[in-house]
Each structure stands twice: as C-alpha cells, then as structure tokens.
Amino acid sequence: MELWLLRHAKAEPYSDTHRDQDRALAPEGELACQHLRTWLTKHIQTEAKPRTIRFSPATRTRQTIEQVTAGLALPAPQALDALWAASPGDLVEIITDLSESPAPIWLVGHNPGLADLIPWLASPLPAPGMKPGTLVRLHVELPLQAGAGEIIEVVRPEF
Question: Which of 46, 51, 96, 152 gives the lowest tally of CB atoms within 10 Å of its CB?
C-alpha cells in the first residue's frame, strides 16, 4: 500500500486565541504549499494520486492540505481528530483503520509523531529530517510492523 505522510507547512508561532491548534500558516508556510502544489500537479499526471486524504483538525494542517490540493482533481480532504498530537502508535492504528480505504492514503499531521513513525516503518530520513512542509511517500506492507516499509520519495519545500 502506498502511504503519503505530510507534516504541515511552517506555522506562525502564536495564535490570537493562544491555542496551539489555532496557529495559522506563516508566509513561509504558504510558499511551501505552493511548491508542494506544483510538485503534486506534475506528480498526479504520471503516477497514482491519493484517493483517501485525512488531516489533523489544527488550523495549520487544514490550511496546508487545502492550499496544496486547491483546484486539483482529488478527493475532498477530511479532518480526523485522532491525528492531532498523534504518537507513532496512534498513527499505526490510524493507518491500520484506514487500510481498507482506497490507496494511496495521505495523512497530514504533526511532529514528533510523523518524524518518529518513518524510521520505525522504513529508514531514517536524511538530514534535515521531517521539517515543516515535508512530504514522504512510502510503500508499506500490512500489517504494519517495524521495517515493513520503504521510502519511495521525500519532497521538501523549496522556494
């Protein structure tokens, strides 16, 4: 099964409400989304596009996936509360629960959960790791277990 993991793009350090979940994308994050959208536009013309998209309910993850997928022929992204502050174990459970959904499956979430899951599934990411706006495509075998995956591609924000 193909799995896409995206860490939200760079966010503002604070929100008006002082709630972490309400932090919006920073201008640098919006630039990263433009880069990812350009990559995605080219990618979905030549390869399998995501068919199931879930994101954390945080403002920055919603803004990231909305900006990256705007105007593209992709399924509507859906919020999934369990992605907020998900640990690697939580992410394994989410992926397992979604494994009967159409693949590729795309999850948009947060560190440290995403950054800790990838080396458990496949291999460590090369430096600088899972920075904001980084997308990692993996091939994973079910049931998920340590070493059950392989990194296909790492897309880092460039601007």
Answer: 46
